[in-house]
Amino acid sequence: METTVFLTSAVVILSGSLGVIFSKNPVHSALFMVQTLFGAAVLFVLLEATFLAAIQVIVYAGAIVILFVFVITLLGVDRAEDLRVEPISGQRPLAVVLGASIFGIILTVLIVAVGGPTGVQEANTPIGDAGNNTRLLGETLFSKQVFSVELTALLLTVAVIGAVVLSTRPQKPLIKTSEESQNHNFEEEIEEGKE
After folding, report:
1. Which helix (H) or strand (E) holds 181?
2. 3-class secondary-structure state, position 143
3. Could you say which of 72, 117, 149, 153 has the lowest number of CB atoms within 10 Å?
């Protein structure tokens, strides 16, 4: 049963990840990201980490991705763009090099973590009692760290309000173009000539 759940959620995660990468519409990419996050939440439930699964769904899939969708639609970047035009020259080869480097680092860390080809675990530190982790985390967040939590919420609220204010377009242009100022001067001369 566990193998079936793992394989199913692995397929969901991989297909969602590929959808995020290859989707041309940013809103569709955000929805594929929700699919990926739900698959990861199922894996957390499979590992009996229910708190992390709930946080994965509530915070990431519920709040962050919805914020992405709001920002995408607010800024209007969901329109079609020509992908052959590179806004910054050389960014694609640099992205390939950085991606390959990060993949190599992660692969090296994974090989070292399991002790190389033998598969013997190198880290033998006991994890401790995991039964009370959720209760202890909740007590810490809402007793000792309550000011930090509230300050973070206030900071995020100010950031969202700032993004909305910055993205609104004014009704009249703030700066007149030279053509508009010439037309305005010409109209003033006509009015003076009529007087």
Report:
1. helix 178-194
2. helix
3. 117
pTM: 0.50
Query: Mutual orientation of helices 65-75 and 146-167 as an angle, nearest 10°?
Result: 20
- Distance between CA 103 and CA 95 in Å, rounded? 12
Reduced to 3 states (helix: H, G, I; strand: E, B; else coil), residue 103 is helix
Please provide the CATH number assigned to the domain covering 1-80.
1.20.120.1200
Taking each helix axis as running N to C, give the angle between helix 26-46 and helix 65-75, from 0 to 180 degrees, rounded to the nearest 10. 180
Q: What letter would DSSP give residue 168?
A: P
Each of the 195 residues of the chain gets a pLDDT tens digit; together they read 888 889 999 999 999 999 988 888 878 888 898 899 999 999 988 888 888 888 888 888 877 777 777 777 776 665 555 666 666 777 888 889 998 999 888 888 777 766 555 555 555 555 555 567 777 777 887 888 888 888 888 888 888 788 777 766 666 655 555 555 566 555 666 666 665
Helices (H), 140-177: 146-167
